[in-house]
Amino acid sequence: MAWRGWGSGAAVLLLHGGAGSWRHWTRNIGVLARDYAVIAPDLPALGDSATLAQPFDAQDIATTVLRGLDDVIPPEAPVHVVAFSFGGVISGPLAAALADRVRSLTLIGTGGLGPPTRSIELVKVRDRTGSDREAAHRENLLRMMLGAPENVDALAIEIQEQNTRRARLNSGYMWRSTALADALPTVHGHVHSFWGEREMPDRSLLEARIALMRKARPDAEIEVFPGVGHWACYEAADRMNSELLRIISQP
Questions:
Q1: Residues 60-74: what's their mean pLDDT?
Q2: What pLDDT, in 10s, does the model give residues 79-110?
């Protein structure tokens, strides 16, 4: 696995989304690193990290992340876990294995709760080039990641292009699993869940997923960001950063 880190202090582990990399956190790292040790790996088969021997599931990835984390910070050190989308699936078994080392678990647009799931048809990018490829990325970002056209900026398109080229994992089957829901009852520390209002094709699907979160973890703090899409930590970075700092600073 490829691991990157910034800052010093209490450890904050950032787990990115599917077909992504550490760059999903590009608007959050600098703010968090002013006061904390921010750690942002590329998950296996994504970004700069190698793949795992087939077959593998969320538990296998979580075990791999845990081994790597214990090489990066002291094995008994506490950690705040922040996970986006597919990263949330992995965060469940990982946080359960970390036991009382977990100070907080923050989930942003997470999967791993079981159905209902998002069903979004994306534009095929593979054989496109130039402005045609950029337009396809723009359309996919609007369909899958961001809520407002004005937020599909050059940086978002560049990150999407880089992540797409290096992704070697179709994580959909893990997204649809209950890996997170099964683990949540045993997770220590505060649990927080954030969602974009435009996260799902319609609001009823979002409400159904929030209900699954409440069922798995009744004490979770849940909040919906109005007008925001799936990639809330990018699209609503200022607000998300404020929430993360509030959560991490809690006793």
A1: 97
A2: 999 999 999 999 999 999 999 999 999 999 99
Number of domains in the chain: 1
Give the DSSP per-residue string, 17-29. Answer: -TT--GGGGTTTH
Residues in Cβ contact with 34 at an 8 Å cutoff, skipping those fewer than 6 apart: 7
Q: Is the pTM for the entire model greater than 0.90? A: yes
At 186, which CATH number?
A: 3.40.50.1820
Pair 86, 174: CB distance under 8 Å = yes
Structure tokens at 238: 């200022």
| Amino acid 180: pLDDT | 98
Place of tokens 């359960």: 96
What whole-number distance in Å separates Cα of residue 109 and Cα of residue 210? 10
Total Cβ atoms within 10 A of residue 94: 29
Residue 164 lies in a domain: no
Q: Does residue 151 lie in a domain region?
A: no
Q: How far is CA 129 from CA 20, 133, 134, 135, 161, in A?
A: 20, 5, 8, 10, 11
